[in-house]
Each structure stands twice: as structure tokens, then as C-alpha cells.
């Protein structure tokens, strides 16, 4: 009876959380006026700037610095021509309300359903990558290579478990701050979950180590081209302006996150009942460790070692391609598809067993793949309803005329709200910077502080925003959103206080 009651009041699944957020956002679009800023975009084929007014009318202008100056866009023209600014830039002081798109009952239902399908279609490259990755993991597991490797690793980790958290969070945090490592980290969960469980930790520790690395790392971006660099260019400054403060923020925030995670993880290792997911500990071990027997030392065959090496090399190539060659998920999926074909020769499995294990492995991550697509649907509703610019314009008007410290602190919270609705860091940068950056001149602060408020605000909300990557990550480790909120809220408050101190000191020195 108690179990039935507990089950009745259990927190909704990731799918349901996204649908609830989608319904709430869709409801808000009925009350928030629709509006648009005029935008300026460079057309390389014509070598012209194309101005799109709120009415939809387009005007072509010479692609010169004078045109940008005329429209009060303080960006060097070369940044448009070399592709650094590749999204339409908002033109300051051009916001106009527009007629709200007509939607009756059936139109609203249609948008609700269509946005979900469109979200899956728009995310197809990520979905394909996730399914192929699942298939590869299924094959490697079938060879027994993963179990044998885990047994050897469990021996090495004895007494050194803390270093596992430190290394994983620090390295992923480094990837986040330099090249915006985010969705790519999905690939690491299937490998790290058994390792963390064997170290005596729980599945929540896995998502903490990985997700805090990517979220806090991206938040405290230093040279990330998708946030700091593009935002600085859109603000008309060099991305190296304000770099010392960003480096200090990365060290401080990643350091706090590592200490916070280790404190929780060690408490769980010493007393498993302290785990926030203690009620599913046995289920997690059965799911992620399977029939792994740590009391028996089995053979680690050459085929198994070779299969693990091939699998690991896939990650090395992926990281190099993303960081050095600008790869996205289509290219990454190709890498792991190539790994699949190599495993045909190294795994030593019969054709039927190989195919079955690949399909079964892909099926295990199908739920994760669908979560990725559903999360995109919220942004689609915002775009189709033309309310993002209205929210942006409202907050811009509210923060005008404040003193410098109050201005920068409030702007940080403004970017938290904007980051919830506009999950694309580059999209938010190009939309907001031509409008927000000039306000720095009005209140007498350096424009690099606007970049910091943007980075830290839109990055921090990623820790808990259901429209971001967190629900996908939680789905990978079988942890509920409520358990994550319980774990992360104290850390969230700590980081908020840290950021407010940094911002206040930054405008005063």
C-alpha cells in the first residue's frame, strides 16, 4: 500500500516535464504581445546587407561600415563578411509590436503537436548520433569488453575515487569553457556510469560530475566561439577583453562544483542510504552493471582489448573533430558509424548476434533521443509566436537608468530569464548584444561586463532549465528531475552569490 502511494505521487518523467513546460510557454504566448526587432544580415552572394523590418519588408544596403554605423550597430563589418556573425543581428531601437498570429482552438492544438514533430525533425542529427552511439555500446557490451575493462579499472580506483570526479569534471569543464562542449557529453555517460558505480558512488554523482563540468564550464566561458567570441564581436569588442576575470570565474566555479560533488559522493560511498537515489540503487546496479561479478577475475582477451581501443579512439577523433575542425553531430555520427564497421572485424561476434546487439543498444537510447527532440519544441513555439523579442524589449526598458552595480546585477538575472526561453547561446548573443552593449556606455561600465552577465546568466540557468540539456542527461543515468533539483539547488545558490560578487567587483574596479 505504501509503495502504491509513493508511486502515485512520484515526480513526472522527463517527457512529461517537457510537455508541461511546452503547455505553459504556449499559454504565455496568448498573453505576451508578439513583436519583432528589425534585423540586419549579410548576404555573401549579393555582398549586401539585407535589412528585414518587423513588417517583413526587406531592404538591401551596401555591406559597408557606414551602413552599420547608420543603424547604430557597433560591429566591425569584417565580422559579417568572414562569417563570425552568421545570424541576423537585431537593430537597436527598432522593436515594433506585430499582429499576433491567428490561432483558434484547432490552430493551438496543431501548433502544440506540430512543434513536437518539428523539434524531432530539427534535432535529427543529434538523434541519429545518439542511436548509433547506443548501437556501438550494445556491440561492445556483447563482447564482454566493457565488463572486463570495468573489473580492471575497479582495482585501479581503490582508494582514489575522488580523483575520478576531479578529472572528469575538470576536463569536461575545460571543454566547455574553450569550445562549448555540451551535447557531445551524452556519449560519456554509458562509459562512466559503471565506473562510478564500481567506485561506490551513485548515478546522481555521474550526472553531477559530467553535467556540472559542461554547464559550469560553458557558463564560465573564456574562448568559447559559440558564446564569448560571438557575443564580444556582436558587442563591438575583442573577446580577450575581460579575460582575467573569466579565467578566475572558471577556476572558482569549477572548483566549487568539484568540492560540492565530492562532498556528496563520499557521503554516499560511506553510507549508501544518504544517496538521493537510494531507492533505486539495486535497480541501477542491475541495469548498468548487469551480471558483472567482481569476485571472479575473468580473462581480458585480446579481442576485448582491441574492441575497447577502437571504441575509445572514436571519442578521441570526436573531440579532435569538434575542437579543431568545427564538426557537429552529422560528422560525429559518421565517426561512430565507422567504429561500428571496424567492430565487425574486432568483436568476433556472429552476424546475427552483432546486428541484434546493435539494434538492442540503439533501442536502449531511443528514449533519450526523443527527449532531445521534444526539448527543441519549446523554442519552436517561441519563434512561431514572436514573443522572444518582446521579452527582450521589456527587460531592456526596465534596466535603463540604473546605477552601475544594480544594473549589472539585474542584467545577470535578465539573462537567466532570457536564457530559459532562448537556449541557443549564439542566437541570444546576436539578438541581445547590439541592444544591451550600448547600455554599458550609458551607465559607465566596460562592455566586457555585459558579456560576463550574458555568459553567467544564460549559462547558469542551464543547470535547471527543462528546455536545455539537463533532462537528456538525467534520462541517460535514470535519475528524476526532482532528485537533480534536490541535489543542485544549494550549489546553484552558491554560484549565484559568487557571480554577483564578481560582477559587483568588476564594475567597481
From TrEMBL:
Transmembrane segments: 12-32, 126-143, 163-182, 188-211, 223-241, 247-265, 306-322, 328-349, 402-421, 457-479, 491-508
Principal location class: membrane
Subcellular locations according to the entry: Cell membrane
Top-level division of the source organism's lineage: Bacteria
Lipoprotein recorded as keyword: no
A GO CC term attached to the entry: plasma membrane
InterPro entries hit by this protein: C4_dicarb_anaerob_car-like, DASS-Related_Transporters
Membrane topology: Multi-pass membrane protein
Keyword set, alphabetical order: Cell membrane, Membrane, Transmembrane, Transmembrane helix
Keyword Membrane assigned: yes
A Pfam family it matches: DcuC
Signal peptide (from-to): none
PANTHER family registered for this protein in UniProt: ARGININE REPRESSOR (PTHR43652:SF6), BASIC AMINO ACID ANTIPORTER YFCC-RELATED (PTHR43652)
Full protein name: YfcC family protein
Species, as recorded: Companilactobacillus zhachilii
Amino acid at each position: 500500500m505504501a509503495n502504491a502511494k509513493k508511486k502515485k505521487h512520484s515526480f513526472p518523467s522527463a517527457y512529461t516535464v517537457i510537455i508541461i513546460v511546452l503547455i505553459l510557454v504556449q499559454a504565455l504566448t496568448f498573453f505576451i504581445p508578439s513583436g519583432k526587432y528589425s534585423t540586419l544580415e549579410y548576404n555573401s552572394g549579393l555582398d549586401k546587407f539585407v535589412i528585414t523590418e518587423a513588417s517583413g519588408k526587406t531592404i538591401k544596403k551596401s555591406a559597408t561600415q557606414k551602413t552599420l554605423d547608420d543603424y547604430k550597430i557597433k560591429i566591425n563589418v569584417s565580422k559579417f563578411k568572414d562569417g563570425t556573425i552568421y545570424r541576423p543581428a537585431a537593430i537597436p531601437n527598432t522593436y515594433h509590436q506585430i499582429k499576433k498570429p491567428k490561432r483558434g482552438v484547432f490552430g493551438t492544438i496543431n501548433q502544440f503537436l506540430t512543434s513536437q514533430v518539428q523539434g524531432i525533425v530539427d534535432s535529427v542529427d543529434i538523434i541519429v548520433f545518439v542511436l548509433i552511439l547506443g548501437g556501438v555500446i550494445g556491440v561492445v557490451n556483447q563482447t564482454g569488453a566493457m565488463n572486463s575493462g570495468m573489473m580492471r579499472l575497479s582495482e585501479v580506483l581503490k582508494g582514489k575515487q575522488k580523483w575520478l570526479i576531479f578529472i572528469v569534471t575538470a576536463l569536461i569543464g575545460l571543454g566547455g569553457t574553450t569550445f562549448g562542449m555540451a551535447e557531445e557529453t551524452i556519449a560519456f555517460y554509458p562509459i562512466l556510469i559503471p565506473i562510478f558505480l564500481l567506485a561506490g558512488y551513485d548515478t546522481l554523482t555521474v550526472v553531477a560530475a559530467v553535467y556540472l563540468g559542461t554547464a559550469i564550464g560553458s557558463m564560465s566561458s573564456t574562448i568559447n566561439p559559440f558564446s564569448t567570441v560571438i557575443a564580444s564581436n556582436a558587442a563591438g569588442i575583442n573577446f580577450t577583453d575581460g579575460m582575467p576575470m573569466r579565467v578566475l570565474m572558471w577556476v572558482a566555479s569549477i572548483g566549487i562544483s568539484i568540492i560540492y560533488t565530492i562532498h556528496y559522493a563520499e557521503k554516499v560511498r560511506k553510507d549508501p542510504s544518504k544517496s538521493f537515489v537510494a531507492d533505486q540503487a539495486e535497480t541501477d546496479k542491475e541495469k548498468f552493471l548487469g551480471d558483472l561479478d567482481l569476485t571472479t577475475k575473468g580473462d581480458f582477451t585480446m579481442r576485448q582489448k582491441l574492441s575497447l581501443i577502437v571504441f575509445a579512439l572514436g571519442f578521441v577523433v570526436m573531440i579532435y573533430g569538434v575542437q579543431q575542425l568545427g564538426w557537429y553531430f552529422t560528422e560525429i555520427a559518421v565517426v561512430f558509424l565507422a567504429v561500428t564497421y571496424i567492430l565487425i572485424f574486432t568483436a568476433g561476434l556472429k552476424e546475427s548476434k552483432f546486428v541484434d546487439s546493435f539494434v538492442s543498444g540503439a533501442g536502449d537510447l531511443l528514449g533519450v533521443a526523443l527527449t532531445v527532440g521534444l526539448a527543441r519544441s519549446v523554442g519552436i513555439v517561441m519563434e512561431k509566436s514572436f514573443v522572444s523579442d518582446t521579452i527582450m524589449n521589456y527587460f531592456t526598458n526596465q534596466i535603463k537608468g540604473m546605477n552601475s552595480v544594480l544594473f549589472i546585477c539585474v542584467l545577470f538575472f535578465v539573462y537567466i530569464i532570457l536564457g530559459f526561453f532562448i537556449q541557443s547561446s549564439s542566437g541570444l548573443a546576436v539578438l541581445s548584444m547590439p541592444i544591451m552593449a550600448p547600455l554599458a556606455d550609458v551607465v559607465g561600465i566596460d562592455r566586457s561586463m555585459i558579456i560576463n552577465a550574458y555568459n553567467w546568466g544564460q549559462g547558469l540557468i542551464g543547470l535547471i532549465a527543462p528546455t536545455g540539456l539537463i533532462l537528456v542527461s538525467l534520462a541517460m543515468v535514470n535519475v528524476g528531475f526532482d532528485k537533480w533539483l534536490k541535489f543542485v539547488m544549494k550549489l546553484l545558490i552558491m554560484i549565484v552569490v559568487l557571480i554577483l560578487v564578481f560582477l559587483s567587483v568588476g564594475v567597481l574596479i
